UniProtKB/TrEMBL annotation, chain A:
GO terms for cellular component: plasma membrane; proton-transporting ATP synthase complex; proton-transporting two-sector ATPase complex, proton-transporting domain. This is ATP synthase subunit c. F(1)F(0) ATP synthase produces ATP from ADP in the presence of a proton or sodium gradient. F-type ATPases consist of two structural domains, F(1) containing the extramembraneous catalytic core and F(0) containing the membrane proton channel, linked together by a central stalk and a peripheral stalk. During catalysis, ATP synthesis in the catalytic domain of F(1) is coupled via a rotary mechanism of the central stalk subunits to proton translocation. Key component of the F(0) channel; it plays a direct role in translocation across the membrane. A homomeric c-ring of between 10-14 subunits forms the central stalk rotor element with the F(1) delta and epsilon subunits. Belongs to the ATPase C chain family. SUPFAM superfamilies: F1F0 ATP synthase subunit C (SSF81333). Residues 9-71 form the V-ATPase proteolipid subunit C-like domain. Its main location: membrane. One of its GO terms (molecular function) is lipid binding. It holds the Pfam family ATP-synt_C. Gene3D superfamilies: F1F0 ATP synthase subunit C. HAMAP family: ATP_synth_c_bact.
TrEMBL record, chain B:
It is found in: Cell membrane; Membrane. This is ATP synthase subunit a. It comes from the Bacteria. One of its GO terms (molecular function) is proton-transporting ATP synthase activity, rotational mechanism. Key component of the proton channel; it plays a direct role in the translocation of protons across the membrane. HAMAP family: ATP_synth_a_bact. One of its GO terms (cellular component) is plasma membrane. It is a multi-pass membrane protein. The chain crosses the membrane at residues 34-52, 88-113, 125-145, 151-171, 183-206, 226-254. Pfam families: ATP-synt_A (PF00119). InterPro entries: ATP_synth_F0_asu, ATP_synth_F0_asu_bact/mt, F0_ATP_A_sf. NCBIfam families: ATP_synt_6_or_A, PRK05815.2-4.
Length: 75, 261
């Protein structure tokens, strides 16, 4: 396999990471909604933590994107 | 920008072009389109603040808008840092508003004027890294100022068993040092990814309209255009969320520096 083909395959594999991160973000918000609907009074105070969790999960998905971009445009 | 083969290059929008050539002691300090958009962002911020800082007893709509944002940052810092957080409102407010305005400025449809295209200054790692260094530097300065060398106890959480003393501080140090990188990367990648996605979809629309077969515009361009409207709305949401996350994480890190654990 020549190097260019391997780069493209690697970039495609990195997209799996982005997809899994999408599942993770969905999990963060669905868990928040489940908790919020059981105890709506406590929901507003937890919004900061919701976004911290969202940011942490999202970062890992974005890193997959960075790897794809590095493979396509830099390496 | 259409190339020779009609391909649309999604990376062209991030190109930095000098508008006025300037040299300072052998260094290139040209006034670029990035600088131009920073000036535009500062101008917009100035207008927004100047219109709302009249301190009237009965606030108008504009003053309510400004007070809403300052109150929002104030609440965030009070909730995360405590009563001492009020001192850091100007810093976090400046970071939040600059990032928010810069993100939105990159989404503005300046492209309808021929020859002009918007530039997202937060889509460059150099810019976001400096913003992240402001946040990280504040944490270091405040931490060492208030606690001196006691600040290093940040790396040893309370109740760490002695058997794990060789491992936990290393992990804590690592997670501390990675903060500026994660702050900068998150903002930079989120903006870059969104803008590439939008340009790729725009390429579908334009290439579909230029295609020879008559069925292509209906099957390709129209759905891509509808999708693009949705993605644009999503991007506006991402702009606000990224600015919020940056401010929120900064206030959390300041909490570490002020209160230790």
């Amino acid at each position: 396999m020549d190097a260019e083909a391997a780069q493209m395959i690697g970039a495609g594999l990195a997209a799996i990471g982005a997809g899994i991160a999408a599942g993770g973000v969905g999990n963060v918000f669905s868990s928040f909604l489940q908790g919020a609907l059981r105890n709506p009074a406590a929901a507003d105070s937890q919004q900061g933590r919701l976004f911290i969790g969202f940011a942490a999960v999202e970062l890992l998905g974005l890193l997959a994107f960075v790897i794809a971009m590095i493979l396509i445009f830099v390496a | 920008m259409a190339g020779e083969s009609g391909k649309i290059d999604p990376m062209y929008q991030f190109k930095i072009e000098p508008l006025a050539q300037l040299d300072l002691a052998g260094y290139d300090v040209s006034f670029t389109n990035s600088s131009l958009f920073m000036v535009l962002v500062l101008g917009a911020l100035w207008v927004f603040m100047a219109g709302g800082m009249k301190r009237e007893m009965v606030p108008g709509r504009w003053q309510m808008a400004v007070e809403g944002v300052t109150g929002f940052i104030n609440n965030m810092l009070t909730a995360n840092v405590g009563p001492e957080g009020k001192k850091y409102v100007p810093l976090v407010f400046s970071l939040f508003m600059f990032i928010l305005m810069a993100n939105f400025m990159g989404m503005m449809p300046f492209g309808i004027v021929p020859g002009v295209h918007p530039f997202t200054i937060t889509s460059h790692l150099t810019v976001t890294a400096v913003l992240a260094l402001f946040s990280f530097g504040t944490v270091l300065v405040v931490g060492f100022w208030r606690h001196g060398l006691h600040f290093f106890s940040l790396f040893v959480p309370q109740g760490t068993p002695l058997a794990l003393m060789w491992l936990i501080p290393v992990i804590e140090l690592f997670s501390f040092m990675i903060r500026p990188f994660s702050l900068a990367l998150r903002l930079f990648v989120a903006m870059t990814a969104g803008h590439i996605l939008m340009k790729v979809l725009a390429g579908f629309v334009i290439n579909g309209l230029n295609a020879e077969a008559a069925w292509v515009p209906m099957i390709v361009s129209f759905p891509a255009f509808v999708l693009m409207i949705g993605i644009t709305l999503l991007e506006l949401l991402v702009c606000a969320i990224q600015a919020y996350v940056f401010a929120l994480l900064t206030s959390l890190y300041i909490n570490d520096a002020v209160n230790l654990h």
